[in-house]
Amino acid sequence: MRAPQLRSRHAVSILDRLFTFEGTWDLLQLQFVRNALLAAAVLGLIAGLLAPLIVARGMAFAVHGTSELAFTGGAAALLLGIDVGLGAVGGAVAASLVFGLLGMRQRERDSVIGVVLAFGLGLGVLMLALYEGRSANKFGLLTGSIVSVDSTNLLVLGVCAALVIATFTIAYRPLLFTSADPDVAAAHGVPVRLLGAVFAVLIGLTTALAVPVVGAVLVLAVMVTPGAAAAQVTSSPAVATVLAIVFAEVGLLGGTLLSLGPGLPISGYVATLIFLCYVGCRGVARFQRRVGKAAFA
Amino acid sequence: MVFGDRVLWDGLDLDVQPGEFLAVLGPNGSGKTTLLKVLLGLLPLSAGSLSIAGAPASRGSSSIGYIPQQTSADPQLTLRGRDLVGLGWDGHRMGLGRRRLRRELVDEVLAAVGATEYADVAVGRLSGGEFQRLRVAQALIGDPAVLLCDEPLLSLDLSHQRLISTLIDLRRRAANSAVLFVTHEINPVLSLVDKVLYLVEGRFRIGTCAQVMTSEVLSELYRTQVDVFAVRDRLVVVGAEECAHHSSDRVTL
Are strands B2-3 and B6-7 parallel, antiparallel or unpaired? Predict the structure, then answer.
């Protein structure tokens, strides 16, 4: 009879470890924690802005590939002793440009991304193995950590956010046009390839900034899931963008706050919260359809 | 027009008047789509000149309305009918745009094609006929002098074929727009056609339907025996399709 009791006590203690707010308040007084929250908020804003268009362009896999190559770039930078963030940006922008120029034919694009992704990931793992510094640096690239956000990161993040917002203010409609209706956009003289490259650079920059915070493995959670969740419940591009930003903020800010007490990596919390948003949206969509059908009948 | 070492057509002298309905016919690979791309300013002419509403062809010309083939969108795509139509008006323009004017114009053309009812439904959830009505609205919203239609009736059922071609016809009568209608099937628009351009492997013929759609002319264009029969108010062309299909693997003995 003792074994199950032990096991349940063990489970309770895991839950206690996962959800504790002990010390959260004290931690919130610290500058680096505030930096991390600010970084999460800015990242949520730009990831939420991009997510609906990423989903419309069918670029989820390209984003994943980009984040793995941001990891490769970061690992290379670690090994060479240069700034990891810089390496991540380099790897991600190079990758996203290549992926962005591959064109819109999904099948061809996906196989090229798969090929490049596997190679980049392998290379990154090898370089991490060769690196002889602190192992926390290595792990941080894959799973993210808020300790890695310092004032330089904040500045870079701010500049990138300004870039994304400025591009969206100027070119949102042409971007939407080429994403949702590429053939007619081309017939209207919209520079489809140029805008594809511009959008790819925005994805690359945002991915590179997301990698230190949520980790290379989980970039999809902040850059794709909010858009996919919003698409479940609305078909208006404007509403989808607002919802995606809300979901990304809930995940990133909520995840950061939840991770403070336990002192565990934030990525798990962020990914779970955004996933719950997605599941909730699917439920709402089901309900909407049922009500819609009843209204027609 | 030359494509690589292939001459698609040469010496094509075509004049379409405002309010005129021109059907462009011909087998696959005869250069119909290339002609449209030239008119849209996406490809330059190898030689010669071209003017649309008094100006040379240019990318994104506002005098052109473009209606493509019916395609289906992903049901999850966050784009409503009214967004698709609105993009036809200012989707190519930078900046924030004039939202109220856009909304008024969108509502107006949606009503004109009878699509108001499903204007707020995701485009991926519409039927092919509903989608094509939005395409007509998307082309009309810019108030174009010329309508370029690239097989807009393809894969539609008969009643929607009639509906879409009627909408295009109404527009050209109301606004005196010229219509250039690429199709491989003339019957759905037979009663609307003023002029026909028939392209076959670099050869072409321009004229009224009665002048071009004859056994003699088509036999000459295809360089094989082609028969044209009038059955009630339809034209049946026998021999052209087979010829077009086998032209690439013809064996010379």
Answer: antiparallel
Which residue intervals of B114-205 are DSSP H helices? 128-140, 158-175
Give the Cα separation of A58 and A75 in Å (integer). 28
* Mutation for A interface: B58, B72, B78, B83, most A CBs within 10 A: B78
For chain B, helix, strand, coil in percent to 5 are 35, 20, 40
Facing B76 at nearest CB: one of A170, A187, A231: A231
Q: Nearest-CA distance from B215 to chain A in Å? A: 36
Rounded to a whole number, what is the largest CA-CA distance in chain A?
A: 75
- Tell me the per-residue pLDDT of A116-169, one tens digit each, with 9 for 90 and over: 899 998 998 898 888 887 766 666 777 776 666 666 678 888 888 999 999 999
pLDDT digit string, tens, across residues A73-108: 988 988 888 877 788 888 888 888 888 777 656 677
Q: How far apart are CA B42 and CA A37, in angstroms?
A: 48
Beta-carbon contacts of B166 under 8 Å, excluding residues fewer than 6 positions away, are: none
| B102-121 residue pLDDT tens | 999 999 999 989 999 999 99
What are the structural domains of chain A? 30-217 (1.10.3470.10)
Residue owning tokens 């800015």: A42
A96 interfaces chain B, CB cutoff of 8 Å: no
DSSP state of B121: S
Q: What is the ipTM score, two decimals?
A: 0.86
